[in-house]
Amino acid sequence: MASPPSPLSGLRIVEVSAFIAAPIGGMTLAQLGAEVIRIDPIGGNIDHKRWPLSPEGTSLYWTGLNKAKRSVTLALNKPEGQEIARALICAPGEDAGILLTNLPASGWMSHAALSQSREDLIMLRLIGNSDGSGAVDYTVNSASGFPMATGRGEEPVNHVLPAWDIAAGLYLSTGLLSAERVRRREGRGQEVVLALSDVALASVANLGYVADVQVNGAVRQPMGNELYGAFGRDFATGDGRRLMLVAISNRQWRAIGKVTGLGEKLAMIGPMLDVDLNDEGGRFEARHAIAAVLAPWFAKHSLAEITRLFEGSGILWGPYQDFGQLVREDPRCSTANPMFAELDQPGVGRVLAPRVPLDFSGTPRPDPRPAPRLGEDSDAVLSEVLGLSSAAIGRLHDAGVVAGPDGR
């Protein structure tokens, strides 16, 4: 019996992009079974050699963000290359005619120009700020308030996670599917614009920080690794590791006291400080006293001992680990986790690769597929989608309009 098709099987999306947000949106859709054709200029876009690199010089960053896609390279600075790109974007079919981009969409690649070739075109476009001015994750993040609430001192602390790019990529994929549903229902296409700064601003507001300023006149201050509004903080273990301990619920709070044997001492803190330790806010107010009682216990135990004691206890905790420890020690980052499989990535070697994190009960997650070599699918896509003959494709190669793998 044949397996049911993947969730987005049959859907075709053309992606013209660079860096993180749009590529992660396209990859998410490709991992769900859509055919995603990424178009790059010959020689690659500005992200093609982004660090980190493999010993062979292949970008681990680029291959990580472009898994399961097809790659076409065109001379996008030439009218002939632009015309081929337009034809791919506007190809007929109810499951085609969708463009995803975070590059300047003007001239031939504007929605107004492309929709002349296909009225029901769907175009997802990421911009920096809502007024059209430029921004990247790092400039958006600096203004979001989070760097000023991170760390312990007055200096801002940037995180290395490109959070707004990642969130924007997922918004783009959600917006694309929403617009595709409108087209199926009403027969009309549209341009959907997402501003990177709006992703950050929406998140700040959704988490209550905007309202906290307006209603309470409060600005969250940096507290190191402490959890705001409840008890949670990091502790050093006896073997030089660190872990994060959190108590959101009363059950979790009681479990900490039971496993450490410090329940009676912890209970004494409430009356001394006149706070209710059965309340999140009370535990937050008493966080320094709680930490003073718990810290010596953690300092007497190794991480391995704590892991054994905490197993099955209901305590909410996790070890701090660098990327190397994550790969070497954490079974969740291995094929023991059904999300992961090993694949051979050209130019890189054999690596762990994730399927899409969503696990559907009725439709299978496609197995992870490697990122293509730059231009690997140029000839096949021009033949399959546009119906060009091998002779016509050869002439385009000779004219420098199309390139195959690695610019050949």
Question: Would you kindly provide a written description of the structure presented here, covering whatever features stand out?
Answer:
The chain has helices spanning 21-31, 60-65, 79-89, 111-114, 137-143, 163-186, 196-206, 209-216, 250-260, 263-273, 280-285, 287-299, 303-310, 323-329, 378-386, 390-398, and strands spanning 12-16, 35-41, 70-74, 98-101, 122-127, 190-195, 231-236, 242-247, 316-319, 340-345, 349-354, 402-403. By secondary structure, it is an alpha/beta fold. The chain folds into two domains: 12-204 and 333-407, Rossmann fold (3-Layer(aba) Sandwich), CATH 3.40.50.10540; 242-319. The strands form three sheets. Strands 6-5-4-1-2-3-12 form a seven-stranded mixed sheet, sandwiched between helices. A three-stranded antiparallel sheet has the order 7-8-9. Strands 10-11 form a two-stranded antiparallel sheet. Strand 2 (35-41), helix 2 and strand 3 (70-74) form a beta-alpha-beta unit.
Helix segment count?
16
Strand content: 15-25%
Q: Determine the structural class based on helices, strands and strand pairing.
A: alpha/beta
Please tell me how large the radius of gyration is: 26 Å
